[in-house]
Each structure stands twice: as structure tokens, then as C-alpha cells.
Amino acid sequence: MGRQPVTRNTPAACQPTEPLEAQGIVNYTRVFYNLSEPRLYEQAIRRREGLLAQSGPLVVRTGAYTGRAPNDKFLVREPGSEDKIWWGEVNRPFTARDFDRVHHRLLAYLQGREIYVQDCYAGADPDYRVPIRVITETAWQSLFARNMFLRIEDSDELNSFRPEFILIAAPNFHANPEVDHTRSEAFILVHFGKKLIIIGGTGYGGEIKKSIFTVMNFALPQKGVFPMHCSANAGKNGDTAIFFGLSGTGKTSLSADPERILVGDDEHGWSDNGIFNFEGGCYAKVIRLSPEAEPQIYQCTRRFGTLLENVAIDVETRRIDLDDDSLTENTRAAYPIHFIDNASPTGIAGHPRNIIMLTCDAFGVLPPIARLTPEQAMYHFLSGYTAKVAGTEAGIVEPQATFSTCFGAPFMALPPTVYAGLLGERMKKHRSVCWLINTGWSGGGYGVGERIRIEYTRRMVSAALGGELESVPFEEEPFFGLSVPTRCPGVPDQVLRPADTWPDRDAYRRQAEDLKNRFRNNFKAFESQVEDALRRVM
Ligand SMILES: Nc1ncnc2c1ncn2[C@@H]1O[C@H](COP(=O)(O)OP(=O)(O)O)[C@@H](O)[C@H]1O
Ligand SMILES: C=C(OP(=O)(O)O)C(=O)O
Ligand SMILES: [Mn+2]
């Protein structure tokens, strides 16, 4: 007789210690608790949620929404949090009554269904971590949560797990704006008092991770921790660098560096102990990913365990095509951070020696690297500038300036000055050096010039972090008062001075003045709240 297949049950990991009924989830057909990747694959394939690609990833479609829907996100106005929240255009209120209605309709919808649960943590520092339970209608979103948050491998720890924040996501449950008072069929509703997030009508994985980020941004400043929309890595001798930046500016790409230890690609906290990742995974853009320019991320797209969102796949050969943008430009890979071979096993690192602020300036104006004074750093942090390009449609050449305070307004639950205050204080205390790095266009801007080559940006980052720029003369650029190195090893001198890359210098000057005015207009909102030194920056 041949060898018997060995099957082992780990019953401890199959039933949540805290029953789902505690979350009002009742009459379900089955609950799948903390399933491993192979079992989630089996479930997703059985339920026809996705396809197994030739090289191992699971490929899914997120539905009508392939990116975040910031206008469909609301915070519940309730006594426990309302006087702390930064209400306005970003954080729009939802009544507690309306929340309860949508919540109950969602719980009713989930009856008779299979439910997937992942119990995990947000926050790598045990002093500040938040136990979260992610309850999903689909197996693939359970894989998303398992890949993105901090896993619990230890069965005793799982057995004693008590969730603090609950997130329920049901992409196929659509709101009805007339009854539910949502803006559309999609909704992301955050209730700080109930410690509950409900998401429906959209399957985009980014909503799950960014709403947990919102929770951290609300809770941590109240514990003296600075939550940041940034990636982070550390040198071999422990020097830490953080990279702030809005979507598409290069946080994920530039933090993956074979010479440095990856701490995290998107969300961190800065406490008195140093920095820590909020997550346990990465969520990389993979459109037209180049194996030469981004080898570490590229290899993650060919691996068992990786979840690919909206990537094109040939149903016959099961080959994926990273160049295909027919579903969206925003194709994504979600994978656990240990898929990057030099990732930190703890997600914890020291106080940042360098702070990099990334911007993707499509106007072709800002220098590719500049050293910032502490006041300039605060100014750029409060401004949160980047430019969006109008997608890939032919004929659209006009980029759009975006100012998103703290480099992440959609996720900042408290007033921006709270975060800016924490940055200023920590930057001063730890004497961090700040840099502005433009990963956008040169040579005349979007539609005329080309995007700064990623190998140049990497070289500039490593020159800044490695101290190579300390011996180089700097000159002041006339429009924004930025201090720009005149040389950077491995980068042509001309690249460092954007004006020199433009075919027409007058056109550069006009564009620079225009951008400067946009900065000034945007900063008016902060002028009454900041010190004189900041008001004089520009
Ligand atoms: N010079 C550059 N620096 C950084 N990224 C670049 C550069 N040129 C092109 N890119 C591309 O821009 C995108 C940056 O996205 P990503 O790193 O995911 O940003 P974020 O994590 O900040 O949202 C990637 O697709 C990357 O390949
Ligand atoms: C997940 C997101 O973050 P980023 O693009 O910064 O990686 C997002 O904006 O949807
Ligand atoms: Mn990213």
C-alpha cells in the first residue's frame, strides 16, 4: 500500500473564539475562519471568484470600482468622536441612525451566506497594535486581508484573540441611496464609537486597507504616536528613511530597494520607540511593471499567494499581461511583505534619519531632488502636492494639480495641524534631514517631456541617504527657494535643473510661476494656523 496522505486538522484555527454572533452575523451557512492561502485559493476558485494564473497568483476582478471611491466614504457623527474629527470636504458626516439602517440591511444580506473571517493586527509595535477582525463575503477579500495585515501564526494567540475593531466588507451588497442616504451604491462607513467599518458596493481592496489606516490615524495621535502615509526602509547600519507621498508618487516602488531593508510600503506610526509598520503586506501598482526597474516587486507578481486585482489574464493559457490596462490603469498586487526578500521581519525600525517627501509633478517644474529646511518640510507636508495625469486617453495633455494635506487627506480623521504638529516635534527632536523628490515629468512636462527615469530617482535617493550629497555644492532655485544639489553621482547634471531640460525657458518660467501661485492659494487655508516662519516659506 502506498503512503497514506497525511491530513491534520487544526481545530483551534477553525472556529473563532469570539463567535460571529457577537458581531450580529447570524444564520450563515458556514464560517471559514482564518483560512490559509491554499484554502482561500480553493474557496475562491470553487466560488468562481477568480482564476489561478500560470505562475501562481490568484487573479480577481474588483467589479465596477477599480480604485478608491473617496466621495462614498463617510464618518459617522456620534458623541464619542464628533468633537475630535476634522469635518469638512474630506470627512463628511453620516448620521448614526442611517449607519444603523445600512448595517442592519447588510447583516440581513449576509444571512444564508458563507462568511470568511481573518483575525489579525494593525500595527507592528505590540504597544500600539489594534486587533482587527475582517469579515468578508468573498474568499478573495479574506486573502487580501491575510496578505495585507499582520498575521497571527500562533494558535494560542488566535485562541485568545478578542477583536477591537470590526470591518465587514460585502462588495455585492449594494446600497440604495434613496433609503440608505449614501451617495451611490458604494459606501465606506466608519463608526469610531462602535469600532465598526462597513463597506459595500465596491470590491477594491484598497478600501479595506485605507479604512483601517483611517482608524489608526484617528486613534494614534491620542496616544502620542504620529501616524503617517509613508513607506519606510532601513540601511544595513540601521538608519531609517521614510517616504511620504500621495498615490502614484513612488512610495511602494522606491522603498523596495535591494540595498535596504523594507519596513513597509504605505502606512507607519512614529512613536517614542521609533517607527512601525501598520501592515504586514504590500499593495503595489503593477501596470507596465518592468522586471529591470522593479525586480523585487515584479517577482511577487509571479508567485503563489499573491492576489492580483484587475490584471488581464488569458483564460486559455492563464498567462497574465501586466501591460494590459483594459480594466484599469490601477492594477494591483497584494502580497505579504516577506515576499520581498530583504523585508524586515518585525516591521519596526529606529527614528528616521531622513524624511523624503515624494511628489509626482506632471508640470515639469519641481527639481528631481532638493534638500528642505524644517520650515519648508512643514510647508510641503501641509501642502501635500502632487499632480494627476488625465489617465491614458489620447489627446489629454493637461495635468491636474492636487493638494492633499499630510500627503493623505482622505485618510486623516483629525485636523491636519495635529499631524503637522507631531511631524514638527519629532523631526526637530531626532534632527531628521528632509528632502523633496519629484518623480514626475521633466523636459517640458507631461505630454511634452518624459517622466524622470526611475533609475535616476533611485540613484538620487541613495545618494541622499548614503551621505554622498554632503560634499556637493547646493544652489537655490529661484521660484520655490529650494536648495538643489549641483551634482549627483550617476545622474546627468542637467537632470537636476528642470529649467535646463525645457525646450523654452520662458515657458518654464510661466509654468513655475503658475505652480507657485497654486501652492500659495492652497496654503491660504493654513495661514492662520501656522507660525510666521512657515508663512514666509513661499
Ligand atoms: N522616477 C520614478 N520614481 C518612482 N516611480 C516611478 C518613476 N517613474 C515611473 N514610476 C512608476 O510610478 C509608479 C509609482 O507608484 P507606487 O510606487 O505604487 O506609488 P505609491 O506607492 O506612492 O502609490 C510605479 O508604477 C512606478 O513604476
Ligand atoms: C491603496 C492606495 O494607496 P497607494 O496608491 O498610495 O499605494 C490607494 O490610493 O488606493
Ligand atoms: Mn503604494
UniProtKB/TrEMBL annotation:
Substrate binds at residues 68, 204, 210, 332. Its EC number is 4.1.1.49. Keywords: ATP-binding, Coiled coil, Cytoplasm, Decarboxylase, Gluconeogenesis, Kinase, Lyase, Manganese, Metal-binding, Nucleotide-binding, Pyruvate, Transferase. Mn(2+) binds at residues 210, 229, 266. SUPFAM superfamilies: PEP carboxykinase N-terminal domain, PEP carboxykinase-like. It catalyses: oxaloacetate + ATP = phosphoenolpyruvate + ADP + CO2. Its cofactor is Mn(2+). Gene3D superfamilies: 3.90.228.20, Phosphoenolpyruvate Carboxykinase, domain 1, Phosphoenolpyruvate Carboxykinase, domain 2. Binds 1 Mn(2+) ion per subunit. It is found in: Cytoplasm. One of its GO terms (molecular function) is kinase activity. One of its GO terms (cellular component) is cytosol. Its main location: cytoplasm. Residues 509-536 form a coiled coil. It is an enzyme of class 4 (lyase). ATP binds at residues 210, 229, 294, 332, 451-452, 457. Pathway: Carbohydrate biosynthesis; gluconeogenesis. It comes from the Bacteria. PANTHER family: PHOSPHOENOLPYRUVATE CARBOXYKINASE (ATP) (PTHR30031:SF0), PHOSPHOENOLPYRUVATE CARBOXYKINASE ATP (PTHR30031). Belongs to the phosphoenolpyruvate carboxykinase (ATP) family. Involved in the gluconeogenesis. Catalyzes the conversion of oxaloacetate (OAA) to phosphoenolpyruvate (PEP) through direct phosphoryl transfer between the nucleoside triphosphate and OAA. This is Phosphoenolpyruvate carboxykinase (ATP). It comes from Desulfoglaeba alkanexedens ALDC. The lineage of its organism: Bacteria, Pseudomonadati, Thermodesulfobacteriota, Syntrophobacteria, Syntrophobacterales.
